[in-house]
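Review session, final week

We close the course with one last complete record, chosen because it touches almost every idea we covered. It is SpoIIE family protein phosphatase, a protein from Streptomyces coeruleorubidus with 816 residues. Go through it on your own first, then we will talk.
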Amino acid sequence: MANVVSEGAQERGTRTLRAEGALKAIAVDQGSPERVHRALEQALVFAGAAFVAVYTPGQDGELLCLVESAGVPRTLYGLRDSYPRAGRSPVAEAHRAGRPVSMGPAELAEHAQARRVPSRDFHLVALPVHGNGGGCLLAVSERPAGFDTDDRKCLELISEAVAVTAPAALAEGGELPPGAFSLAMDTGRVRVGDELLDLFGLDPVEFDGRVETLLGMTVPEDLPSLMSVVEADHMSIGDRELEFRVLQPTGPPKWLRLSGRLLPGGEGHPARLVGTVADASTLRSDVTDVARVQRLATALATAVTVRDVGNAVVAALRRPLRADRIALAELESDRLVVTVLDPPEPEVWPELWRTEWRGEWPDAPVRAMPTLAAALREGRARIWPAGSPLERSLAEVGPGGLAVLPLPAGNRMAGACLIGWDTPHDFGTDERALLTACAGLAGQALVRARAFDAEHELVGMLQRQLLPRRLPRLPGAVAVARYLPSTAGLELGGDWYDVIPLPDNHVALIIGDVQGHSAGAATLMGQMRTALRAYAVEGHPPDVVVAHANRLLMDMESDLFATCAYVDVDLEEGSAWCVRAGHLPPVLRYPDGGTEIAEAEGGPPLGVITRADFPMSPLRLPPGTVIALVTDGLVETPGTDIDEGMDRLAGRLAEAAPADLGLVADALLGNASRSDDVALLLLRYDGMDLRPLRESWTVWRVPQAVGHARRFARRTLRSWGVTDDIDAVLLVVSELVTNALVHTDGRVRMDLTLINNRLRVAIADASPRSPVRPASIGWEATGGRGILLVEAVSATWGTLPVSGGKQVWAELVLGR
């Protein structure tokens, strides 16, 4: 135990050292405007934070304003852009007291500063930031235990790192880093460094400090998107990034990249846009339109399902286009069936889409969006800038701009891709060409993927039809089964299972696997399952059932073989016989939690040797025992021994709580590799609350055979305490025994079974022919009345095949 503790401590210490090394590497680049953001990202890596932010005092000194953040959106936790320095928020308390403040879910729910009740539980810690006017580092964790000691050490290192140069310094009139700018949103006055002016081709001496001068240098087509950033009406607290072009005295325009953040100014002070501008001409070589199309084509070449196609399109378009929403949908008749939404949350999509949200995704009627229907009829990409008159179901997808890409496939439309922006977006010529090229690739891939999904569904449906729809209810036991098809390819698997109720409260558990993955393997699987069920119902013992199936497979002259395990469980006695034909042995979990891999002797697989022996091995089942039968797909993985897999299965079965077998089965399948089919069959033997009384009598072919049978039946009933309806029972015994002696040859056996007040009389003989109930009997007839008498005095009667003959039975309700 000491070694384990020391190793854990060493690992945590190593994590802190790694965080310190990463922050030192970031601190080397003091002039980088991205340094603070990169430092905050280390909290996501080394402290396990879901969100982290820096708040620094605003210009009026009365507010602590958000200046940089990393992680998931802060709105998920109800966090604000700013907090009063004199308030009771964790940010303000940590800043004033100069010490960390921590809160758990219960404290946060009761906190007076909460703007709303968050939709998730989380832990929050606020640490003071010393230097540059102070501030606060705020971190959020969604882990149940929150931040541990080493997480807090990492956060302390990060709070020291971000104190060196806070982004708010850009708004305070200090020296600007290279390429940085600070724009007053109320006056349009901008402070810039000499390097930024060099990018625009302006002389620092002649620059008048007005943002309009810089905007006048941009390409006219890029001016609307740039204005959407520098105008306060279109900005919200947070990051903004875009690429734009500036005119050059000679040659083509130069590409620049702007990264900015709006900082609140507080009461009486204007907000300021701070950020950097960098040369992006060298960065665009790997994100050209041709490269984007090539990357999309490569991704679509490996996309198999419709969902894969949608994800590839989203990955290829959303980030390069800086879109806020992308939806990919198939066109099925008059409905648009959505297959991928990014982001996936329903609340960010139009109301019409939410009302049509029938499953995982919506499927909206095309007629409700006439503009979209017209675009699909035309078959070409359509673009609507901000403010275009559109129906609400489309306008809410992209209030700042909307692009609709019909996805053509041959001479028809396979679907559509909708791309929306929240802020005004300018659509350049290169962007339009990119969208058109991507639409053609996506349409063809969507048709291929739809065919794959349809074939996969057909394969799954066929596989399900070959397996039992439901398992029977058993007296004194519960059975559950699971089947997982392989995720590799479309071929059918050969794994199967079956649960067969047998007479005298026996049940047969069967699991098997046919060699290979093909339609032939699935067909043979269905034949083997049917054959084993037929042989079992005939009443053969387990070894004979498996031997018959082996001979049948040999006679079929198939190139495939099969393995199977057959377990005949006596639910009355709590015992079982197991037969293995090249299959894995059962795993037993006993009531005390101990597990055992049954030592059941095995025979060869079915279809290999004509004259093969399949020995039976006994199993004892105390009440509460669980029997687990599996195929090799669950326990065998590449590079590992199958015996190790069986040991792992036994270990997981020992840890499971057997009260709910369904949960046990799901837990055992949790780590399945899915490179092969997996079948799992579990039975928990609980024991029968009421065991029937049984007696048997061999009827010898002597002149007084019927009388002997009647006397045996009378003595048995009296020993059981039965006094009512004895005459009716003796009549049934007489008629059934007489029929067997007169119409059959060989041995005759009588079985009497009593459970509650129901008595079952069963006569077994060596003839497979069932007795025929006569349609009518005349007065002169000398026979044929026996079955009619049995039918008259019995509640029910019937026949069933048994090994080497049949059994005629009748049930009587005593003491009615």
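Two points worth writing down before the exam:
The first strand starts at residue 51 and ends at 57.
The two ends are 70 Å apart (CA to CA).
Good luck, everyone.
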